[in-house]
Amino acid sequence: MQLSKIRIKNYRLLIDAELEVDPKTTLIVGRNNTAKTSCFSCIGNVLEGNSISFNDYPLLRREDFYTKIALFMEKKLPYEDLCSQIEVTSIDFLVDYSLEDPDDNLGALSPFIIDVDVDTTTALIRAEYRLKTDEKTLWSLLESSYYKDGTFSSNEEAHNIIADNFGKLFGLTVYAINPNNLEDKQVKSPKELHDLFPFYFIPAERVLGEDDTHNSSLGSLISSFFDMSEADLDPDVAEEIKRLRTLVEKANKDVQKQSDEILSAVVNSSIGFGYPNIEELKLGVITQLSIDDQIKNQTKLSYISGTANESLPSSHNGLGYKNLIKMEFLLAAFAKDVEKRGVACVPLLFIEEPESHMHPQMQTAFATYLEKFLGKLSTVQIQTFLTSHSAHIANTMEFAKVRYAQKSNAGVIYKNLNTFARADPENVDFIRKYLTLTKCDLFFADKAIFVEGASERLLLPDMIEKCETAGVFGSCKYPLSAQYYALIEIGGAYAHKFIPFIDFLGVPCLILTDLDSVADRVGESGKVVKKSVSRRVSLRLPLRSLAVQLAGTALTFGSAYGVVLWAGYASNIAQLALAIPAGAAVYAASLLIGDRNWFRLLKKR
Question: 404: closest CA among 509, 510, 506, 511?
Fold first, then answer.
């Protein structure tokens, strides 16, 4: 069984967001502040049974929320209607068990299957933060802020009281819902939900060191070996752990006996103050030593030279390796916890920005090996969720595993790239091949600029800078150079293939191209076709004249670009063929770059 879909409503920027979940790994990409971490936070709060604060309630819903509370306090809205009309924070989990044998024990999922139809192979679970306080308590809490001298008034004080008490007013309720009849539902306990979804979150801010100031991830893993029964241990390590425990127990007894004798002798040698005397019992000392606690708490990671057998502390290793090793231990500990549950469940693993401190090749290796690594750790299928700003990780993942977080004024939604693949099969093969490392920047950009070739890609940033310096773009608050734009070279013949994909992502886009010279040519079938005309042009102009012309064409190009950029705010795709100014500028510049006489002229001057 596996989690197939998550739907989150009214949590921060997630007004109504649906996330389709891959059976193994789901990668969420998108620019900053697109609710990637919020998704993890909402799921974590629900599965851990935590309350939520008013800061988690979306800004877009607050005005309506205040209005309905005010209507209730003004006695214009009954309490029952208030409870039903408030937009609450909720999350739906859709679990697919179609691959399970009908006679199999569904374990922790069983309490949530309330439909007796044998053909139903999905379970729907909803967790809501509903208004839990009764009418009288709510009225007593807010009365003094809404009524002054017996007169009703809605004010900021009432809003502050609501915000301060939000976690007390709203409580978590879990439902099992019949997927064939949404009105048919049963209340379940948060513990039953927790047992179904073992949850582990590895945040981006990871404590990388294995020092005395923080809990050691290595120590935590070793502690789990000591605390687990031998039957729960992996067969590969069970025998070794058994030997270690035997040695520790024997050492505990030996050290205990010797320490008792030594310390008792020290105490008795200090007798001279009249007690104890011959009539009293002899003094002794019992020391409670626990070597296994020392092993758990004092075991640290070190790095050993293979030739000299010398060791160094973990603080001497690079941050990238420490980050990777830290995650390996955390994943191993989570896998052990999942294995020892011994009941059918759906483990969920969330890793936030795993690329932290890793160089590009290490990021690629991590994304490639993650599923295989988890498969070695646990026989239970662990569904993993990743968030990332790494083009290397995005480029490594299969197209069907990527979800793009798109933000608009109505909130954030998650787009499944596989949906685009199914809707536009003619272009998807090309897009998959073309989304190489540099093109994956598209997933993290505020807007995109597509250019034809290398000349435009090299010249455009300099042209944008010159145009801004010359004031061509006007007094815009956020100049283009201060925005996150992706400059992508796609070749003149392929811009049209990217338009459906850009439309799907919803990224404002500018496509710059030129008009090549063409001439009529007679084809093999006798049909007249248009063919581009290629000819070499050599420019030998004085340096000052060339500089003036290049600056002029750059200024013209910038002016036209500014108009297109402005138009891009109103439409999703802005395509313009700058045949005379831009085409001439870029073509002339490319000739200048390629003409050896131009470089000879620069050298002489």
Answer: 506
Whole-number average pLDDT of the chain? 78
Helix ranges (DSSP H) in 382-540: 391-396, 417-423, 425-434, 454-469, 495-505
Q: How far apart are the first and last CA of the chain?
A: 74
At residue 587, the pLDDT reads 43
15-29, 371-385, 493-507: which has the highest mean pLDDT?
15-29
Reply yes or no: is the peptide bond before residue 58 cis, omega within 30 of 0: no
Which of 217-221, 293-297, 451-455 tops mean pLDDT?
451-455
Residue located via tokens 């793009």? 404
| H or E stretch covering 270 | none
| Cα→Cα distances 86→142, 450, 521, Å | 17, 45, 69
- 8 A C-beta contact, residue 384 and residue 370: yes
Phi-psi category of residue 80: left, alpha or beta, with phi > 0 → left and psi -120 to 50 → alpha: alpha
**Residue-level length of the chain:** 605
pLDDT surpasses 50 at 543: no
Q: What angle do CA 467, 469, 471 make, to 5 degrees?
A: 70
Q: What are phi and psi of 574, to 5 degrees?
A: -120, 110
Phi-psi region of 357 (alpha: psi -120 to 50; beta: other; left: phi over 0): left
Q: Reduced to 3 states, what is the DSSP secondary structure of residue 425? A: helix
Contact 327, 386 (CB under 8 A): no
At residue 170, φ and ψ (nearest 5 deg) are -115, 130
Nearest to 143, CA basis, from 156, 160, 158, 131: 158
- Is 537 buried (19+), middle (13-18) or exposed (0-12) by CB count in 10 A? exposed
Distance CA 299, CA 215 (A): 11
* pLDDT of 211 strictly over 90: no
